[in-house]
Amino acid sequence: MNGYFQLITMPTTTGIKVFPPTDFGETLQYDDIKEYLDERSISYRPQVLNEAVTQATGELVVLNDNAAFPERESYRLTISRDHMEASAFFYAPSEGAEEMTPKEFIEDLAYRNIVFGIDSEAISNYFSDREYCKEIVVAKGSKTREGTNAKVDYTFKADLHAKPTMREDGSVDYFNLNIINHVHKGEQLAILTPEDPGDPGQNIYGEILNPHPVKALKLVPGKNTYLSEDGLVLYADADGHVTLKDGKVTVSNVIEFENVDVSTGNINYDGSVVVKGTVASGFSIKAGANIIVKGVVEGASLNAGSDIILERGINGMGKGEIKAGGNIVTKFIENSKVTAKGSVTSESILHSNVSSGTEINVSGKKGFIAGGRVTATDKITAKDLGSDMGATTIIEVGADPNIKVRIRELQKAVADSTKRLVTIKPTVESITKRLKTGGQLSPEQTRQAQQLITMNKVLVSQIEKNNKELEQLQQKLADSKDAYVVVEGTAYPGITIHIGDQQTTLKTESTYCRFELRDGYVKTGPI
Q1: Domain span at residue 301?
Q2: 146 belongs to a structural domain
Q3: For residue 234, what is the enclosing H or E element?
Q4: Counting CB atoms within 10 angstroms of each CB, which of 123, 137, 299, 365 has the fewest?
């Protein structure tokens, strides 16, 4: 219990008793008594009052020689600045004076407009077991719970900037800038956490305290996207790349660039790629679908799962390479390596290695193939082959050029396996013979024998498998007799024409002719 005081009124004097705290209660302060006496205009000598507070013996101390009226039990009410809390500091009644009732106190609070958060239990506890000169919280408002703005979490990099990285040697890597967000159908793109409006509070006067306004958001589906039923998750509705623009998420399977250079780095994309300008030397584009370039391709690398269309052409400068899973259409091909599973169409081919799984057509005003090696499975059509400058030009038709490459690989593999088999065969035969005659082998010899026997089986199996594939490919090569080469202008001396496994080198100029395989030889005839 805190220390407290009690006013003592007598016929001719007024006194006070100051009681000490008990059980670790708080000591009564001088100002607490001073405020009480000043409010009631009871005179006192400060020195006498201070001694009474300091000594706190519970003995009567006379304050003045004037009689005062008895004082009922009372209290001092303190309201916090934010009107969220009210506390009462109760004073003991004068000796023999009346005590306050709980009803009276509660009515007094109502008179003071304190109507919310009244702590009935704390009030009841006080009146059941009075503790004077102690702050008791009698009313407490409810705090406002502030809400939060809605937010959208994107599962992709919504703010992409081309930023080159430093290599270990200190040079700058402008080629791999990671500026494309690849997504697959059904993938989550964005997750919305709705706004939380918060909860209003209320002060002890019953005034509503509203939380601050919060910002609401919603997911806006763009092309090739869809929302979950509750509108909280956005999904991709197609494979492609995802972008965020003006708050809208869009998935597209065609991505466009002004140019492919240091501003973009290398491009690796599952859909189609369109380049409005040029593809700079040293950079690469890899697309799962088509590649369309409206400007010039320099010494760059292009790899498309489907078609490649070059509206201007490619000058590979000896290092450019384009490869298509479908057809290639281009204005010109210079100093490049070009491979297509489908056809290749161009106005000119100069000093390049060009390969087609079907046919190559070189038409237009120029329509020439000069220098390099040009290969097609079915046919090659051109206006002019070679040149009067004598550029080494090789024309091949009749089989998928990859078949010839594979045949050479298989022939080498069979030869290598056979050589190894010949090397270990005597040892294997010797071990087998020794075991059949009851001979014994040391543990180390047994281990080596098992390895050699296993290797022998593997080599035999590989040779059989490779020979079977080799036979099939050679048959395909033999069946290429229907392939041909058409020259709609001039075929110059020095060019070499391969059809299937036969070839010829032109000694004289030929015009408006067709080269085909007849009677086992490459022969020329009219178109």
Answers
A1: 254-399+485-526
A2: no
A3: strand 233-236
A4: 365
